[in-house]
Amino acid sequence: MPKKTHANILATLGPSSSTKEQIEKLIDAGADGVRFNFSHGSHEEHKERYNIVRKLEKEKGKYISILADMQGPKLRVGKFRDESVYIKEGDYFTLDMKDELGDATRVKLPHPEIFHALKVGDELLVNDGKIVLTVDECDEKHAKTIVTVGGYISSNKGVNLPNTQLNISAITEKDEKDLKFALKLGVDWIGLSFVQSADDVRRAKEIIGDKAWIITKLEKPSAIDDLDEIVRLSDAIMIARGDLGVECPLQKVPVLQKKIVSVCRRFAKPVIVATQMLESMITSPMPTRAEVSDVANAIYEGADTVMLSAETAAGQYPEEAVKMMKKIIVEVESDKLYYDIMVNTRNQPKCMTEADAITFAATEISDVLRNVSAIVTYTSSGKTTLLAARERPSQTIIAITPNIEVARRMALVWGTECHINKDPFKSFDKVQSTAIETVTENNYAKSGDFIIITAGIPFNKSGITNMVQTLLIP
User: Fold this and answer.
1) Which terminal residue of the chain has fewer beta carbons within 10 Å of its beta carbon, N or C?
2) Distances from the Cα of 394 to the Cαs of 2, 163, 261, 328, in angstroms?
3) DSSP codes joined into one string, 207-267
4) CATH of domain 84-160
5) What is the pLDDT of residues 148-184, one digit of tens each?
6) What CA–CA distances, in Å, run from 84 to 107, 156, 157, 183, 269?
7) Do 8-72+170-341 and 346-472 fold alike per CATH?
8) In sequence order, which residues have a C-beta less than 8 Å from that of residue 427 and are 6 or more positions away?
9) Annotated active-site positions, please?
10) Which segments in the chain show pLDDT lower than 50?
11) Are the CB atoms for 428 and 405 separated by under 8 Å?
């Protein structure tokens, strides 16, 4: 296994990474979690990959996060009579509900909710924003538009509406079936697509309950308007820069990325930076310098996890892509400036709870006391460990938990290593001895080092973190 880093890697599985041998190479190269993209593949294919990952998890002795990423509502134009047509800037082009093949003047848009929401002056972006249509007149069955940016348009191309909030759920009928299947499998995270507001997250939580944690994908400008509440309600956030870069001006995406990472850290929620990180490695064994800088910047910003999409799902060099991402993370985290940034961007929580105060104090102690090798957090839900990770300490965070579900979810959390201990604690001596045993047997610390322990008294009760202690390893 490569050197363990504070930041983590999430690799998407697909045709290039579907066998046990291929998936094992990704894990050995440094992948901490895998993503199942439910926009592609059958339930049987996802089940087979799930079983492979869980088998490898046992063989490697490493907890691996599994994300089931829902497709969400996909807005697309209908089919054209010819393979594609060219529409020119300044021409009129109509979108309607007619069940007829499209041509150079019109095409079906089979989404009545779009027509209900459109207003004159609204923009529709087609084919990843390559074509821009501005609404000139509209009603509930059609929209006459002016071609603002022309080009070739073909069947089933995607449609984005950057300035329009649609009366459409983030969870479609297909998603409901996929959700039921994924939760039955036992995935750790559910990726929620097309989130427009905090209400979408609330509805998803009602459906999912405590069976998995929710990763809310931020790809709509309206979601950014409701950012604080969405982050508060979510278990983690994914900055989905693909659609976000279509619906927002491209120059705004880096600024939004920094803002989102900062807000997630304030709320102690893991944040994943995704899309086109090492895009050129789909067809090349080496990335561009710009891509390397992009990954490095995400790490310098304090991202918990960086994600590979087509690079590992359908690319020619999936293993190499993971190895390259790991090398970048190791290089950044070897830079003293990295930890200077982590320290300088720490903010004392405004509404500090007892658990906040304890974990904040643990990091403060680790900055003052010499030879602190690890911060040990006892947690049944994972929340205490998330608070510790928010502080971005230079030491590894060791999470000791009785729950394997928590251990798997923590694989995407910054700087965290999880260990299972199902024995209930009856004394503080047992808490101390378990911590010492865990850090020494796994080479996190040695004799003469200090560790810092956070826990809750009374023992074995969820939701309590009220104790911090320094402990010298004999």
Assistant:
1) C
2) 19, 42, 19, 18
3) HHTTSSEEEEEE-SHHHHHTHHHHHHH-SEEEEEHHHHHHHS-GGGHHHHHHHHHHHHHHT
4) 2.40.33.10
5) 999 999 999 999 988 788 888 889 999 999 999 999 9
6) 11, 11, 11, 40, 44
7) no
8) none
9) 35, 76, 217, 275
10) none
11) no
**Residue 327, CA distances (Å) to 4, 219, 402 in order:** 11, 28, 33
Beta strands at 33-37 and 8-13: parallel, antiparallel or unpaired? parallel
Number of Cβ within a 10 Å radius of residue 289: 8
Give the per-residue pLDDT at 3.
60
Residue 241 and residue 253 in contact, taking contact as beta carbons nearer than 8 Å:
yes
pTM as predicted: 0.93
Rounded Cα distance between 448 and 436, Å, is: 12
Q: Give kind and range of the element (H or E) at residue 69.
A: strand 65-69
Token pair in block for residue 190? 């559910």
CB atoms within 10 A of CB 292: 18
Q: Please name the residue that has the structure tokens 């993370």.
A: 329
Cβ neighbours of 389 (radius 10 Å): 26
Q: Which residue has the tokens 């500090």?
A: 352
In CATH terms, the superfamily for domain 346-472 is: Pyruvate kinase, C-terminal domain (3.40.1380.20)
Structure tokens at 31: 């992948």
- Cα 262 to Cα 41, 228, 353, 386, 414: the distances in Å are 34, 11, 20, 15, 14
Taking the CA atoms of residue 351, residue 353, residue 359 and residue 364 in that order, the dihedral angle to the nearest 10 degrees is: 50
Q: What are the two backbone dihedrals, phi and then psi, of residue 394, each rounded to the nearest 5 degrees?
A: -75, -20
pLDDT digits (tens, 9 = 90+) for 347-389: 766 567 888 999 999 999 998 998 999 999 999 999 999 999 9
With H, G, I as helix, E, B as strand and everything else as coil, classify residue 444: coil
Q: Which two tokens stand for residue 120?
A: 């004159």
Domain boundaries, the chain: 8-72+170-341, 84-160, 346-472
At 347, phi and psi to the nearest 5? -125, 130
Tokens coding 179: 């959700």
- What is residue 96's predicted lDDT score, i.e. its pLDDT? 96
C-alpha 227/C-alpha 221 separation (Å) is 10
Contact (Cβ atoms closer than 8 angstroms) between residue 397 and residue 389: yes
Contact predicate 179/207, CB 8 Å:
yes
Superfamily of domain 8-72+170-341: Phosphoenolpyruvate-binding domains (3.20.20.60)
